[in-house]
Specification:
The chain is of the alpha/beta class and 317 residues long. 31% of the residues lie in helices and 30% in strands. It is built from 9 helices and 14 strands. The strands form 2 sheets. It has an 8-stranded mixed β-sheet, sandwiched between helices. A 6-stranded antiparallel β-sheet has the order 3-2-1-6-5-4, with helices on one face. A hairpin with a 2-residue loop joins strand 4 and strand 5. Helix 4 runs parallel beside helix 5. The protein is globular.
C-alpha cells in the first residue's frame, strides 16, 4: 500500500463518498481508483482549509495542490491539480530551442505575452517557467497574481548576471483582480504575472499594464490562438469599448502562444502555435495592424513566422 504522494499523478478527484481517483499514466484522459494509506488524513486536511471561493490552495506534507470544489447532484466533488515542488526550467519542457531563444530575447522588452490553451494543457507551467528564467537571467522584481497560486515562484533568485531577482505571489480574494493589479502597477515591478485571465477586471488591468512599461505574462483559456485574442478583448470590453480593447492590445502585444500537450500522462510534449509582434514599436508591423482592425486574419503571418523561426532566420526584417 502507498501513501498518496507516492502515486504518480497530476490530477486527483474526490467525491462525497471519499473515493479517490487519479489520472492513469497508461491511458490518455483515463482515471483509476486508489486507496492510499493516508486517505483519511488527507481528506481531513482538505476539509479543514478555510476558503471563501471554490478555487483555493492546499499544502499537504510540503506538496501544493490547486483545489476546485463544486457541488454535483449527489454531493460535493473536489478536483485537485498536484503542483510541482519547484518551478521547472523552461529548458526541460520539450520546447523547440529556437522558440525558447526567441522568448528569452523578450526579457528586456515591455508588453504582453499571452499564453493560451485548454484546461490542463500546461499554459500556467509554461509562463511560470518563463518568468523564473527571466529572473534567473536578469534579476528584477516580479509581482505574481493568481487564483489560486500554482507554481512556487515566491522568493529570491541569484541571477547569472550577478544581480538579484525577487518574486512575490499574491492570491486573488473574492474574485477581486482589480485591487492586486492596481497594487502591482504602484509597486513598479519589472514583471507582472497573471495566473489566468477570466474576469473583465483582470483583462482591463492586464491591457493597461502591457502599455505601462511592464513585461506582463498572462494565461487565458482558449482553444486557438485567435480565440485567445478574442477572449481577452471580449473580457476587456466590459470595461471599455471593444475598439479600444483591440487598440490597446495592438500597442501592447508581444507574443500570443497557443499550446496543446500531446501524449499520455508522464510523457506529454507541447505543440505550440505562435504569433509575434515586433517589439520595436517605432517600426511598422502587420500583426499590430491586424489586431487593431479586429479582423484577426493572421494565418499567413503565423505560417511565415513559423518558417523563419524553424530556419533560425530573423522573425522581423
Amino acid at each position: 500500500m502507498k501513501k498518496l504522494l507516492q502515486y504518480n499523478f497530476s490530477d486527483l478527484y474526490i467525491n462525497e463518498n471519499k473515493e479517490f481517483y487519479i489520472s492513469d499514466e497508461h491511458y490518455k484522459n483515463s482515471l483509476k481508483k486508489v486507496e492510499p494509506t493516508d486517505k483519511e488524513e488527507f481528506y481531513k486536511e482538505l476539509l479543514a482549509v478555510e476558503h471563501i471561493d471554490n478555487s483555493y490552495s492546499l499544502v499537504y506534507k510540503g506538496t501544493s495542490f490547486r483545489v476546485e470544489c463544486s457541488t454535483s447532484v449527489r454531493g460535493e466533488l473536489w478536483c485537485l491539480r498536484r503542483m510541482p515542488d519547484k518551478t521547472p526550467s523552461i529548458h526541460n519542457l520539450n520546447y523547440n530551442h529556437r522558440f525558447i531563444q526567441y522568448m528569452l530575447s523578450l526579457s528586456d522588452k515591455s508588453g504582453l505575452i499571452l499564453w493560451s490553451g485548454s484546461t490542463g494543457q500546461g499554459k500556467t507551467t509554461a509562463i511560470a517557467s518563463l518568468l523564473a528564467e527571466y529572473l534567473n537571467i536578469n534579476g528584477g522584481f516580479a509581482y505574481a497574481i493568481e487564483d489560486p497560486a500554482e507554481m512556487p515562484l515566491e522568493g529570491e533568485y541569484q541571477a547569472v548576471n550577478g544581480s538579484i531577482g525577487f518574486c512575490r505571489q499574491f492570491e486573488v480574494i473574492e474574485d477581486d483582480w482589480r485591487s492586486p493589479l492596481k497594487s502591482a502597477l504602484r509597486s513598479h515591478p519589472r514583471y507582472i504575472f497573471i495566473g489566468e485571465i477570466r474576469t473583465p477586471d483582470a483583462a482591463v488591468e492586464c491591457l493597461r499594464a502591457a502599455i505601462s512599461g511592464h513585461l506582463v505574462l498572462a494565461s487565458i483559456h482558449a482553444g486557438t490562438l485567435t480565440d485567445a485574442i478574442t477572449s481577452l478583448v471580449k473580457y476587456a470590453a466590459y470595461g471599455m469599448s471593444e475598439n479600444s480593447a483591440y487598440d490597446i492590445l495592438s500597442r501592447g502585444i508581444l507574443a500570443v502562444i497557443n499550446q496543446e500537450l500531446i501524449g499520455v500522462e508522464g510523457a506529454r510534449h507541447p505543440v505550440v502555435e505562435t504569433v509575434f509582434a515586433n517589439p520595436e514599436l517605432n517600426k511598422a508591423d502587420p500583426v499590430r495592424s491586424i489586431i487593431r482592425s479586429g479582423t484577426l486574419n493572421l494565418a499567413t503571418i503565423i505560417e511565415r513566422q513559423a518558417i523563419r523561426l524553424a530556419q533560425s532566420q530573423p522573425i522581423f526584417d
